[in-house]
Amino acid sequence: MSSDTTENTGFDLTKGITLADFGDQQLLRGQVGDEPIVLVRTGNEIMAIGAHCTHYGGPLEEGLVVGETIRCPWHHACFSLRSGEALGAPAFDPLLCWKVERDGERVFVHNRISPAAQPELLIAVTDRPKNIVIVGGGAAGFACAEMLRRRGYQGHLTMLSEDTDAPCDRPNLSKDYLAGTAPEKWMPLRPDDFYKDNHIDLQLGTVVQHIDTANHRITTKDDRSILFDRLVLATGAEPVRLPIPGQDSAHVFTLRSFSDSRRIIEHAKNARTAVVLGSGFIGLEVAAALHTRGLAVHVVSLDQSPLQNVLGSKLGNFIRSLHEAHGVTFHMETSLTNIESESVTLSNGDKLTADLVILGVGVRPRTALAESAGLNVNKGILVDEYLQTSVPGIYAAGDVARWRDEASRQALRIEHWVVAERQGQVVAENLLGANKKFQDVPFFWSVHYDLTINYAGHAQSWDTIEIDGDIAARDCLVRYQRNGVTTAVAGIGRDKQILEFAAASA
Ligand SMILES: Cc1cc2nc3c(=O)[nH]c(=O)nc-3n(C[C@H](O)[C@H](O)[C@H](O)COP(=O)(O)OP(=O)(O)OC[C@H]3O[C@@H](n4cnc5c(N)ncnc54)[C@H](O)[C@@H]3O)c2cc1C
Ligand code: FES
């Protein structure tokens, strides 16, 4: 190495580096004072950005450069290398950008570049919406509102949410927050001031009951009317409830909202045993979180192996063994026939003690509002590539939207955080005249104890699963293939390859 380095932070960029220091790498970690920086080489140009993703702090030197953007290895946030703007969720805050200076062979970094004004995107004056109403205060609704203001929309912006909390980090409700390792203050996507400062009229605890498409008016449950020029439906999905006797008892919960998670935590404080029905992502994450809280946890599921429909049985069984190693007990290929006050009865006749029961058997899209308004609905609100519904001027995004996916030539409805946020962002830009198709490759992550699984693409079914690496060694890339084509990949410890797959499939 021709320049000063420190073990943790890389090159001291105030002393300069040479191109040779990059070796065959495109990304190089360095520092200016205490500020960690990543240098990015694209062709002959070198750019400098903050080293940590503004979402959860992912290490951008392990990310992927695509054109003039960099993608975070952890949850695929996309940043502009020139302006630092968080172009694609789940990050919303920009990266710091630094000025790169050259002196002969050497490259130095000393100073920050002042943040660039974000480009505005406004449609022809005659068609500019004066009132945009967003129904839903979740991932898609929040991302839409945030992007509308970021792109310079100055009209009225109303966000109506049945939730009693402002938009929050919903994925965390079954992970660190439920486990007690993330404090409450980490949960809001933005502090309360954000809505006030950005003139977003966020009305919480507000249920929209009716849409009058002809008169551009919605009615709330408390009988208020609100007019709109453009409407965004981001009503998400709701947990499925099975007709199990006892499911209405006070110790039985589903998990969707911040208040659901708080209620479960309150109840868990006096509980010693929990039964989780369902071995999907939420069921298993809840099992891990409650185990971390010291409860004895049993998972009951109709499936042969956990997550087998999404990840296949090998990866599913590995995740099962991980939970078992932590002390979670599985009861597979069975269900609950009855929930009693301190126990449950399984369909195989077994009885388990249960101070707490969580039903995690999937969700269904909240389409009732759209359906009663006459919008086309079929297993989700049907939208085109631009995420517009069958009624012009009304858009849908997130878990509730079933969009026409050009790449796979099928209608897709996906229940992933990043997909919902990115759809919200595309809707915002289309409301301002961008005419942008939603073409992102679906991506999600799931966390079990200290193990994170990342997944990109969408494989409803497959004829072959190819495993590269060793699942048990937590180093694997699993390819889901149909007719020789890989439609999705899942990985442990293979973040870069998953980023590459997503970029190549876009
Ligand atoms: C516990 C949990 C953990 C998760 N973990 C992950 C994960 O690790 N990775 C991942 O990719 N995805 C995860 N997901 C899925 C992800 O959270 C969803 O895909 C995402 O929240 C969908 O966003 P949305 O905006 O479509 O819906 P939501 O975020 O559910 O928001 C819907 C909003 O609409 C409101 N609403 C509905 N109907 C009305 C009405 N009539 N009037 C007013 N308001 C209404 C609701 O109150 C809510 O505010 C998780 C989900 C949960 C519940
Ligand atoms: S930490 Fe970068 S996207 Fe989450």
TrEMBL record:
UniProt key word Secreted: no
Domain Rieske span(s) in chain numbering: 14-109
UniProt cofactor(s): FAD
Gene Ontology, cellular component aspect: cytoplasm
Pfam families to which the protein is assigned, alphabetical: Pyr_redox_2, Reductase_C, Rieske
Species classification: Bacteria, Pseudomonadati, Pseudomonadota, Betaproteobacteria, Nitrosomonadales
Name this polypeptide is given: Rieske [2Fe-2S] domain-containing protein
InterPro entries named in the record: FAD-oxidoreductase/Apoptosis, FAD/NAD-bd_sf, FAD/NAD-binding_dom, FAD/NAD-linked_Rdtase_dimer_sf, Reductase_C, Rieske_2Fe-2S, Rieske_2Fe-2S_sf
Keyword Iron: yes
Record key words, sorted: 2Fe-2S, FAD, Flavoprotein, Iron, Iron-sulfur, Metal-binding, Oxidoreductase
One Gene Ontology MF term: metal ion binding
